[in-house]
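INTERNAL AUDIT FORM
Audit reference: QA-55
Scope: verify that the stored structure record matches its stored sequence.
Auditor: D.O.
Record contents follow.
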Amino acid sequence: MNQSRIILGCENFFANHLDSIKNKKIGLITNQTGVDHALRSLVYLFYSNPDINLVAMYAPEHGIRGNAQAGEYVPFYRDEKTGLPVYSLYGQSLKPDSGPLSDADAAMRSFDTVAEGKLPELSMLANVDVMVFDIQDIGTRIYTYISTMAYCMQVCAEKGIDFIVLDRPNPINGESMEGPVLEYPEYSSFVGLYPIPVRHGMTMGELASLFNDQFLPKKVNLTVIPMIGWRRNMWYDQTGLPWILPSPNIPSLQTATVYPGQVFLEGTNVSEGRGTTKPFEMFGSPWIKGEDLVNTLNRLNLPGEKFTEIWFTPFYSKFNGLLCSGAQLHVHDRESFRPFYTTLHIIQAIRHMCPDNFEFHRDYFDKIAGSASIRKALERGDRIEEVIGTSAAKLEEFKNLRKAYLLY
């Protein structure tokens, strides 16, 4: 596979833009994905540079080192290597109830849909002149790093703090878009804040500019440091960059590729594969007959993928410790593969096969869909092509809206 060496936003920043933060106190929002080509942590690069006055760090969901599971409270602490404060942007003022790992998915559904505990408190920004954001996203609206960035931009605008985004690739390319546009503000939540589609085809820097111009109540003084050499049709494995897990349940680019569809299983009582070695690629339950499901799905000849029967026992989350039967999704042509379209067929097939067992977690499914219309259409038994068609006009509107904010 052809690979191209690109220059990341952080590398562009250190080479060409350090003067912009000279003599200013810096706050850094990052996590384990904030590294350069040499895999040097942005925390190290900022802290060890004599020209940068790093005074605080801020941790999104999963923590600044990626050591917290989905839905897990991230506390305040002091970094043992730098001594700097690390403020939580995921529950600093609203600690969720603790519970067994088997309840992790329920905790996530509850905690991830509210704003409480996600906005940085003004006291956390008291000594900051400039906030720098550098986190690898996965190209899907239903992912909390986007909301963390937007909330921080909002609070920085209120306090008059400059905001810099160091841009990174959209790993599943910057051209493909799919899924419903969120109905705003009715279905706005931490897992989908603004009216963008499920698969948006934008980088974090591009999204920051879009949010700042279109949705923030007050504009922040925003600077996006772009990449050099990235092209919109690139997938992550064409960038020459190593894959750093953006969160514990996205272990590979293959996972990120299927996630824009398979994440919808979180809004059902079917396991999306959390607690296995192939989250989102494997799915099932104790009451599904995997062989029958695979035969049904493969007869559909969906573009770009095939299914095989799989048995698995999750070590946490749904059906913890129980043997599940289901399917594994194999993508063999990612250019034609349509994740959202595929997962709608998966849900429809399971509903037809197991009408007495299958359930929607209705509120959460509607939050991640950004609308109740998708679930209601599936409950009516509408053809999937009709379900997709209901969101086509809004998707086309978004395509036109985003043009002004594309950097590449």
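Auditor finding: record pair retrieved intact. Confidence is low (pLDDT under 50) at residues 93-104.
Action required: none
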